[in-house]
């Protein structure tokens, strides 16, 4: 009978011991941070913070695609250690340079508005002022074309729409 008890205790101990050996210990936040930083090192503008397995990314990226790529890299750095990723990366939108050169802008406006003979324009300090008459169907095309010249403003308040 003692042999049966001993074997039972030995088997239970072996199962418990193998179960604890098989469980991998939890990775520390510091080690996880190092892994994530290595994974996203292609963008030095992104900082990493880790707390209890939750990775937070802060910084800037050149595009939405790059932002997503950084998040995916952070998740893949340690799939078991990363519980979730908080992506606070801001995408830098390129600034459009405003054209305030009156002579240059006037030349471009005159060239563009050749196809709109019922419209008159003036340019002053980067502001295009539109007057005259135009069919409703063509107003959007006019506005988009003038906006594409990068003026400070397009003032269409003097335009009569038919």
UniProtKB/TrEMBL annotation:
Pfam families: BON
BON domain location: 24-93
InterPro entries named in the record: BON_dom (IPR007055)
The keyword Heme is assigned to this record: no
Signal peptide interval: 1-23
Keyword Signal: yes
Keywords: Signal
Protein name in UniProt: BON domain-containing protein
Organism: Sphingobacterium kyonggiense
Lineage: Bacteria, Pseudomonadati, Bacteroidota, Sphingobacteriia, Sphingobacteriales
